[in-house]
Amino acid sequence: MSLRPGCLLLSALLLVALPLAWITPAPAVAFGTIDSGGQHREHERITRAALACTNRDRACFQPATMDYLAGHDREFGAVGAPDSDEMTDPAAHCDDADYLAGSYPHTRDTAVASLRNCVEHLRAQFREGLDSAKNLLDDRGEVIPQEVAVSPECNPKERDETRAKCRTTEAFGRVLHGVQDFYAHSNWTDRADPARPLGADNPPGLHRPGPSPLLDLRGATDVRPPDDFTTGCYVLQDQVPGVSACQSRVTHAALNKDRGLIDPVDGRATEPATPRGRTADNFADAVAGAIAESRRQWRDFRAELTSRYGDDRGARMICALTHDDPVHDCGDPYRNRVAVVVLLTGTVLAVVVVLRRRLRTVSRAAPIRPAGSRPRRGSR
User: Is the pTM of this model over 0.85?
Assistant: First the structure.
């Protein structure tokens, strides 16, 4: 049976594409964004556990706003945006900063450079969010209604999205994605399997808590990881031992702690589903580090808003970013009190004026009798 020319062309393209997919490095899908394929929306659940209004933080994100930040149902949300349009950028996921002491195909300088690229990428997103926030308020410091509307829901896939709240939240969500991936992809919080020798398939663990000083996004300090720090190399054929560009290197498959169940309220992590995640408490420790880091980044973002725009405007911006109805919730309390006082004062004055007018009318209508005089007969 003969093949049509179109089929021949498709076959030729597949023959070219499949080897490229084998050899081309690509960033790993870290903590999950969807609820299938072994993923359980880990990014969403970490973000909710860290920043939703169930954690008693006054600067928490209210439900509708949190839905956009963290994602919901089939929506990736801001935190899932890098999994839709930055899949080919290792810097967005803190990949390929792998290194082991001794004979290793990747130099330490190259590994540090990869980590530095990740941090600088996240710093750029952090600054982009701060820049976008200025458009939340007008020149008088009042919330601009059309800039904070979240209906229709913000969509990070739409590059023509111009609403300031959407753009600021998206940039901050991309920050959260990267810093959460740092804990899933690196050995910062985890431990090696004590039953096996250390090596590319069982790299050492640092077992450190979050937040990490490596992720200081407000500053411009140079990134200097500990000697044994590593993330994982990733290609589409992700396995242990590594193949192609990841041959003889620490791979994402060996190191990741991406999969498991996370309570979106208290952040409790159970049922780890990767080999490294099942070692000791590695999955739970990575989730705890990611939650602590997410809270730290939100504290730093708020502090930078007030530092850049002043206490009053900064506080109004934070309110606008976290509240579902910023126009009504984020007005000036002092101005509102003055308005109430003016309104009440005006009401009191109006009542006084009316009473005075009525008294004058009564006094003019009533007959004036001399003191001690008696009314005429027939009168009451």
Answer: no
